[in-house]
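User: My advisor, Dr. K., asked me to get a structural model of this assembly before our group meeting. I'm new to this, so sorry if the format is off. These are the inputs:
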Amino acid sequence: MFLHNLKYELLCNLRAPALIAWLMIFPIFLGIVFRIGFGSIYENNDLFGAIPTAVVETEKDEIFGRVIDSVSGEGSPLLIVTYADNDKALDMLKNGEVKGIIYSGGKVTLTVAGKGIQETMLKAFVEQYGVYETIIRDALEHDPAKAPKVIEALSSDIKACTEIPMTQGNPDPYAQYFYNLIAMVAIFGSVTGLHITENNQANMSPLGAKKNCSPTPKSISLIASLTGSFIAQAVCMLICVTFIVFVLKVDFGGRLPLVYAAAVTGGIMGVTMGFFIGSIGRLSNEFKNGIAMTVSMVGCFLSGLMVGSMKAVIAEKLPWFNNVNPVAIISDCFYCLNLYSDYDRFNFKMISMLVYIVVFTALGIILSRRKKYASI
Amino acid sequence: MQVFNAFFKVLRSKLGIVLIYMIVFVALVVVMTFTDTASGMFEQERLSICVFDEDCTPESAALREFIGKRNDLRELENDNDTIIDALYYGRVDYVLTIGKGYSAKLAAGDTDGLFESKRMHDSYSTVYMGQTLNEYASTVSAYIAAGNDISAAVSKAGDAMLKDAEVTTISFDNSSGGALSLRSSFFFRFLVYVLISLTMSTLCPVLLAMNRKDVRYRTDCSGIRPNSYTLQLFAGSIIYIFLTWIVLMAVGVFMNGGMFEGMQLIAVLNSFIFMVFSALLTILLSSFSPSINVINIITQVISIGMCFTCGVFVEQSFLGESVLAAARFMPAYWYMRVNRMLDGSETYDGSLITQALLIETAFVIAVGAVTILIRRIKLSDTSALIAGRVRA
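Assistant: The format is fine. Below is the predicted structure of the whole assembly, which you can bring to the meeting.
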């Protein structure tokens, strides 16, 4: 009986595929939008690249010229230098071809057109040149015998800071939009879940009325519907992750099977959430749909789908909330798999999802059981 | 006016869900505005830096103080997960550990490996702070080489490195600041998302009820002409959306701290045109009579997709040329151009603002015309079907 019901549940999804099709199309469409939109932001704005700078020599300054050569030469240069006259340099600054103009000869000064980290780095470079110049001049004036040691200290190549990379995963902060997109598809499984109660309650749909007249026990019919929806949603999640990982080439780190597992579990949680909402009271389908959409949308917003910094703000102001927001839990799974080397937090998030699945299913069953309909 | 009256009768029956959406979206626009206003006030050249001092000497304290003068010092738990979260989400730009024995090594002239920095990738802040720390260490060494003791060298190095260079900032922008305050600017920016989502989520259930087959067949049997039916539906929808827009503008006035005036009224007009566009787009989509679930998903695709490509959720200046070229075919792009000129992000250009508003209006006319055409085809199809059935 269970298999018979399951078969027809799956056939229903296949024969009225509008919802399932849209659940598959929308992450593909939004994924493409995200990929095109964020494709180059990380490389262009976040990763360090040598700063394009114009140098205007009002007088010939050999020492400064050598310093400029040392920071713009081979290897990992700090600056990409273009020597120009004042008018050309100003034109370049206006057109955004350079971030600043360094005037050498006499006192070294800087002209910029904006305020950002690249301009700050240029300012620091000019200031440091001034500091070194002052220290050497002071040494020569006060104690010329020590001047060679001072110059040696200033010119020696030092590496005061040892850098420790915190992750082997993908550090692109824009990847979080893809995590949230998958989480959104998963939580939209609630729409599929709503159908379960709609199709099993006699007062909600003709199919529900027909099912209630049939001799099939309600529990079997419900479990078959739930299983069918789980399967349909799992397929949506598998397609969504596959498209994002293999077509859009978003790097989720090296633990792809667990990414699939988290996505499918998230999708099942979404379905059970819909099942629970659908079982509440005698509200109309439209109203329940509105509640499911509102909960999903607010969850997505608070997880950072629309404003990327939102999850960090929540983590700072209401740290517990990211552990109860279903969307944040799903997206955190991908985040943990990508960035953390251990599984502690990932396991916690997976367990949270499983707890939600059990609680939503149990509440859904409790709320929808023993509903009898009078003969009219 | 029967269709018009029926529209509001159906709307009244769905008031509960309309109110839920209204409250949620008003709350969303307020939270979005406040969240992004807070991040907009961040001074770019001041980095957020977390310093763990394992040396705990006067010299390490002096370095911490030196860093804090030009940056914002943030406290974090010294735990890898917390540090990864903070770096990934940009709560801190740099995490520095002053190693044990820092002071002794520096006094001995050993400048290598004094610090550890934890990083996610080679960012500008990592390179900038790395340079600054190298320069600090070599400046202190130079002062020691010049005959100063460690505490004097540290003090002199800090003073010398905090002297500002002569920096001239020139502006190529002819605008004299924005007409919109920072908060109003963010409000009008996120209004795009709210207008589309709210309109589609609340208007669609009403229109779908009006478009239900049995209701439509019954209407087709009546003496109302298809064009009159569509125009009454347009009028009802636009009046309803106008009322929700008034509510949103009231929230905007609250955000602005007073009534909109002068150039700010252009932003109000801009949002009005976009509101009409959203209403017509909703009527167009509901003409195809999809299920409410499908409408909900289409709403997300259109609203989120348009907002990401047109520079609502991510600044237009960050988006690539190809993305912006494609976005020109969407009204939200022109809406954002007007908004950016009004808040001072772009040079103010009166003719460009007029052009953008006209393009938005052209989108409204185009969507309106397509909607009328599709509804005529659909209504004439059903009329033909009914006529065929009657003849049979």
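One thing worth pointing out at the meeting: Chain A touches chain B through 104 residues (CB under 8 Å).

User: Perfect, thanks a lot.
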